[in-house]
Design brief:
The chain is mainly alpha-helical and 139 residues long. It contains four helices and no strands. Among the domains are: 47 residues, no CATH class; 50 residues. α3 packs antiparallel against α4. The radius of gyration is 42 Å and the shape is elongated.
């Protein structure tokens, strides 16, 4: 299956050398034509080069110029991620303690058969605080 293939090709022949052999007459003819045109019209070619360079410089500094985009403010990152994580744990612990305290108050208020105006206001306030804590912990 894996049989070595033998070839009579010269190993120095490459694709590029074969292309050069094939198209050499055309390249030589085009080169001779350009050389003759350069010898017949040197001033024209000089001024065309000057115009092209000038036009290129004008376009480079006007049309193709990259405008400076104002940079957006980069948010400042916390320098120490360990202390930031520890602070977050401490906040979560404090929120948990407050949640437990508020739930006990809500349970004690809801056990009553009749609620006074002060009880209703306290219940609404405690439930709002619980909802706020829940939102801040779940980002």
């Amino acid at each position: 299956m894996f049989k070595k293939i033998h070839s009579d090709r010269d190993p120095r022949d490459t694709v590029m050398s074969e292309i050069r052999k094939e198209f050499r007459p055309y390249f030589n003819k085009a080169g001779q034509g350009l050389k003759g045109a350069a010898q017949r019209y040197p001033k024209f070619l000089f001024w065309m080069m000057v115009i092209n360079i000038s036009l290129s410089a004008i376009l480079c500094f006007t049309v193709f110029r990259h405008r400076d985009v104002p940079q957006k403010a980069v948010p400042v990152k916390i320098a120490s991620p360990v202390s930031g994580g520890f602070d977050r744990i401490m906040q979560a612990g404090a929120a948990l303690r407050q949640t437990i305290r508020l739930k006990k108050r809500v349970d004690s208020i809801t056990r009553k058969k009749t609620l006074s105006a002060a009880d209703s206001a306290a219940l609404f306030k405690d439930l709002d605080t619980l909802q706020h804590i829940h939102r801040t912990l779940n980002f």
